[in-house]
Amino acid sequence: MTTRRSLLIAGLATAFIAAPAAAQEVHPNRIAAVATISIIGDLVRNVGGDRVDVATLVGPNGDAHVYSPTPGDAKELAAARIVFVNGLGLEGWMTRLVTASGTKAPMVVVTNGITPRRMSDEDHPGRMLTDPHAWQSIADAKIYVANIRDALAAIDPAGKAIYDANAQAYLGKLDELENEVRTTIAGIAPERRKIITTHDAFGYFGAAYGMRFIAPEGVSTEAEPSAKDVARIIAQIRKQKIPAVFMENVTDPRLIEQIARETGAAVGGKLYSDALSEPDGPAGTYIDMMRHNVHEFAKALGGRV
User: Is 132 left (phi over 0), alpha (psi -120 to 50) or beta?
Assistant: First the structure.
């Protein structure tokens, strides 16, 4: 494994050196920032405003769990003045990418200050897993915003007042969003607030807003669910009369389609869990993503939409 990793780092570094510079618009007076995933990138743009240029490594509809860094990613990191990562085990590929790029930019873990959700690993009894999907709680997303604001002000003190104002305005929008989410969930009968999703990306949402999510793939999309896992989920749906199953934009839909066929549960609309949609899609921003998902929950579960 060590030899394989060393070869991967060397290959990335060699490709990085040999790759021609990508044509892009340069703003010399702006802070070059890199975010690992599109959700974090959107938050950085809202706080940074016109003072920050944001590049995102894992783009719209991308799956950070199984992402493979490219030479272009190494170039982005090498040119960055600051890098924003989720942490909590989401970006397992980031260490080798940092090594390959040689970047000296500070790495800001935007989940600092958040209490991680821990859960049992059903495949390894006694082992606990950390859920990295903290952005699914709007209260936790506010902590992301505060960490982004403070980090930008630390490397760009001249922009502190702007970052403070942008963050304050955006936090106000998140307050409005949270009220909307709570009102929508309150319109769903408590006994119907049970959902099957492709992988366990909505644990923070469930804990914050009183819904139960069940997922055959656990917290990551790296491992395929076994036939035993799928059979257990099907039995659970039938026993608990779970009304709806949902597909996500970052996962293969065939698993959920199979579960729906065998249980008769309704297939809800597409959810956006680990990544935003394209900018002109239904979840082009973090706020749009959260609003879209809760609307789909309500529509499938008999709530008010």
Answer: alpha
Q: Which residues contact 152 (CB under 8 A, 6 or more apart)?
A: 31, 33, 44, 47, 48, 51, 52, 82, 159, 163
Each residue's pLDDT tens digit, 244-289: 777 665 455 676 677 777 777 766 778 899 999 999 999 999 999 9
> Going edge to edge, which strands form the sheet with 244-245?
212-214, 194-196, 244-245, 266-267
Phi, psi torsion values for 118, nearest 5 degrees: -115, 145
* CB 249, CB 268: distance < 8 Å: no
**CA nearest to 31, candidates 47, 51, 46, 49:** 51
Grade residue 106 by pLDDT with cuts at 50, 70 and 90: very high
Kindly indicate the confidence band of residue 119, based on its pLDDT and cuts at 50, 70 and 90. Answer: confident
**pLDDT tens figures, 193-225:** 988 776 688 999 999 999 988 765 443 445 565
Q: Can you give the pTM of this predicted structure?
A: 0.81
Amino acid at 201: A
Nearest CA-CA partner of 66 in 190, 220, 264, 188: 220
Do residues 143 and 111 touch, judged by C-beta distance below 8 A? yes
Measured CA to CA, the distance from residue 43 to residue 297 in angstroms comes to: 24
Q: Report the distance separating Cα 49 and Cα 27, nearest Å.
A: 13
Q: How far apart are CA 134 and CA 131, in angstroms?
A: 7
DSSP letter for 248, please: B
Among 125, 77, 99, residue whose Cα is nearest residue 8: 99
